[in-house]
Specification:
single chain, 244 residues, 2 domains, six-stranded antiparallel beta sheet, 8 helices, elongated
């Protein structure tokens, strides 16, 4: 009986589905290619700003570093696999494996060239642009502009001193506290009406939203050092990102 049970156990183990490494290669390759498409377009920065308020430095140091290591490991493993099995692979298999290695390698090389050389390339979009677009989408869904304007109508000129306040403070309305800004600045616009600037960020860059009345002029972007990239949200409201 013991021999029969051992034979049945062995047959059962043989019938268990094994991992098809070719399929896993394809899944990993598709993931890498998706990353290659998303990153130059600023997809990570956009999503980071749309669903949170982390800084671009955080993305670069942690997200990009982790995914970069993953791609490099994928390249090394793929190259070793290709060299060790070169004679056993068919022509089609050699082509597929070469593409799996070649496309990520071109991506890594283009990234290194764009960073290490002064040559400008349109392949990589500055991170602050998609980040600001994502932040605008977040403010569009989260910020209650009308409630903020109603509160601004209760302010006097003495309240709008252009002073930066660390948020939150009891004198600020709930429409501010929901957004959880780091700083709040109350000032007057060119028309003599109150405006408010909410700021996020820290020592490595700031971004935020400026809200005025509907007749407040939205200034164009200032691309000079420590200028601001600005995107209008609606009349009298725009989001901005500091340039460094």
């Amino acid at each position: 009986m013991d021999k029969k049970e051992n034979i049945e156990t062995a047959q059962t183990e043989e019938r268990k589905p094994r991992i098809n490494w070719n399929k896993w290669d394809a899944v990993i390759f598709v993931a890498v290619v998706a990353f290659i498409i998303i990153v130059p377009l600023g997809g990570i920065e956009y999503l980071e700003a749309r669903f949170g308020t982390s800084s671009i430095l955080f993305d670069t140091c942690f997200v990009y570093l982790t995914l970069g290591i993953f791609i490099i490991v994928f390249l090394i493993v793929g190259a070793i696999q290709l060299l060790c099995n070169w004679r056993r692979y068919t022509r089609r298999k050699k082509l597929i494996k070469s593409l799996q290695i070649g496309i990520p390698f071109v991506f890594v090389a283009s990234f290194a060239i764009s960073i290490l050389t002064p040559i400008e390339t349109h392949l990589w979009q500055p991170g602050y642009k998609p980040f600001t677009h994502g932040f605008r989408a977040r403010m569009r869904s989260k910020a209650d502009i009308e409630a903020i304007r109603d509160w601004m109508n209760t302010l006097s000129k003495e309240d709008c001193t252009a002073e930066n306040f660390i948020a939150p403070q009891s004198k600020f309305p709930e429409s501010f506290k929901v957004l959880k800004p780091r700083y709040v600045n109350l000032d007057m616009d060119k028309n003599g009406n109150p405006k408010v600037r909410l700021t996020w960020g820290g020592g490595f860059g700031h971004w935020g939203i400026e809200i005025g009345m509907e007749d407040m002029e939205v200034p164009p972007s200032d691309f000079s050092c420590f200028g601001e990239y600005r995107l209008p949200l609606e009349s009298g409201v725009y989001v901005w990102h500091e340039l460094q």
